[in-house]
């Protein structure tokens, strides 16, 4: 790959901007609610559901948005859809900054933000699937490090900025998003074939695509495919758990605060461990990508499932006032979880359906997965307001057992692009 200078120029541009895609996707999907919710509660007296209801409604709308955006990417190309989407995301951030006490402006703006983060993630996924096969896992492992970076620096930075500038912080976010849109428009291409290149910088077309079936991936064929349902169930649970975890971890720590934790347990102790643990967990995004490239997506998915346990169990058993060891394990698990799913979701979908059919299958898979994910905030908010947040975490652990069993049942699924993957050379020997 590094021998092809034209290819590597596009590849490096994508890797750099891809880190930002994942950083802002994770940050603006739900993570920023960790700071926004306490700020709005203390400033305007709004309760949990008042703050998160527009996000929940937005999440419901994204069920359709996944399908629309996926279809548009296939029909018109990634950049033609992604650039205006990023600009609309920036506009939503501007709206939050101007909202003040106006709940209407706040609700409309955060609704737009929740919807328009979807193309940011899907676009990055499709570009990675288009440009890489042999190095797909490792490249995704690098760019998806942007997600745990939110835990390492994003949440702390956002906490500090909101404390100093209030909602004007979202104007700064909007400015960065505009720059991202410009780079996407002029620095990237939808596929290597668009500029006379091949995936991974190869000099010939992928061998695994020579005998590829011409059958399209329709909703009917997908619903009749057991492989699709296994993907939907396992990674649908992952998406649901991430949304629950990342939107309510601050509130969890606040609920466990003691009078000695000033201003609260999240700020006084958990943020420190989040930075330390998440920093140590960031390399796991690349490790999962390496496992995917060398051993296959199913084995990498099993490892990812175990990493989820490290994130959820400590919060379920966390004592009042916190515990340093549990916080360190939790923070490491959070980094593995938030970086691992963006790495592995496109990998495992490409593994099952191949590069050319990736988005045709992915748009339906992510649409169905978005249905339970849309209710994640309501699920956590209801348990929190009932004073039963611990129970919610035990339910999440039960779901992860289901996903683990589902992934194990996928072990005999073949790799659609096996002829162009590293591990086929090992098997040949």
UniProtKB/TrEMBL annotation:
Its main location: membrane. Coiled coil: none annotated. Keywords: Membrane, Transmembrane, Transmembrane helix, Transport. The keyword DNA-binding does not apply. This is MFS family permease. Signal peptide: none annotated. It comes from the Bacteria. It is found in: Cell membrane. The chain crosses the membrane at residues 7-24, 55-74, 81-99, 105-127, 139-163, 169-188, 228-250, 270-291, 298-317, 329-352, 364-386, 392-410. It comes from Sedimentibacter acidaminivorans. It is a multi-pass membrane protein. The keyword Amino-acid biosynthesis does not apply. Residues 15-415 form the Major facilitator superfamily (MFS) profile domain. InterPro entries: MFS (IPR011701), MFS_dom (IPR020846), MFS_trans_sf (IPR036259), Proton-linked_MCT (IPR050327).
